[in-house]
Amino acid sequence: MVLADRVCKSFGAVHVLEGISLEVERGQVACLIGPSGSGKSTFLRCINHLERVDAGRLYVDGSLVGYAERGGKLHELHPREAAKQRRDIGMVFQHFNLFPHRTALANVVEAPVLVKKARRSEATERARDLLDRVGLADKADAYPAQLSGGQQQRVAIARALAMEPKLMLFDEPTSALDPELVGEVLSVMQNLAAGGMTMIVVTHEMGFAREVADQLVFMDGGVVVEAGAPRALLANPQHERTQAFLSKLL
Ligand code: ADP
Ligand code: MG
């Protein structure tokens, strides 16, 4: 579902991604960990067309992200084509960014109606199902300010799912939450994974990584230092940098 082959990204003179190579199979969950500034968010943003890759190749579901390949040369995709690719990818951020003046239900209905031209009645029915799936059937008419952080984040997940993505990206989805609210969000993500969704999750929730992830990826300095099955990597990290990072985390 995702194939990164030596993906590079700089901001001016700052080389943030220095050749990320990574493969995530359809239906797999990959957890990304690494020190602050190691490029985790930038990598997710490249996958989701929020940043442009400078060098290397990045594919989602077999399509080159943001470019078309013609005669051995890369051409930037027309914005309309890029937007089409992007529709298949859902993203959940640390800060939920719900529309504050819309109810939970309206937040979930919005994108399919505007972007996918779904019929409002059908989008509404689907949105109710999604709110039910994230445990918020009774909060459909609540406004974001009336919801806890954990509930808002679950609405944000439902909103991303409303576009029927084939890939979900999570960038530290629980790190802005009070500790007692983290579990309810992780459990929604765990259910999503159990349903077969392909997910890339930046998180430092090692319990989640151990239980749910198929692959744990340690990034540092803009490269993948090591990746593998979570239990094996956590029990027996091969690189000194991984060991040092994990020892501070656990
Ligand atoms: P992480 O998510 O692992 O903490 P980021 O991907 O957010 O790391 O950032 C990696 C580096 O890239 C940081 O040094 C950050 O300052 C830099 N960076 C990220 N976005 C930009 C930008 N738009 N312009 C300049 N520098 C950026
Ligand atoms: Mg980040």
TrEMBL record:
Coiled coil: none annotated. It comes from the Bacteria. InterPro entries: AAA+_ATPase (IPR003593), ABC_ATPase_HisP-typ (IPR030679), ABC_transporter-like_ATP-bd (IPR003439), ABC_transporter-like_CS (IPR017871), MetN_ABC_transporter-like (IPR050086), P-loop_NTPase (IPR027417). Keywords: ATP-binding, Nucleotide-binding, Transport. CDD domains: ABC_HisP_GlnQ. GO terms for molecular function: ATP binding. SMART domains: AAA. The keyword ATP-binding applies. Residues 2-246 form the ABC transporter domain. The keyword S-adenosyl-L-methionine does not apply. PANTHER family: AMINO ACID IMPORT ATP-BINDING PROTEIN, PHOSPHONATES IMPORT ATP-BINDING PROTEIN PHNC. Belongs to the ABC transporter superfamily. This is Amino acid ABC transporter ATP-binding protein. The lineage of its organism: Bacteria, Bacillati, Actinomycetota, Actinomycetes, Mycobacteriales.
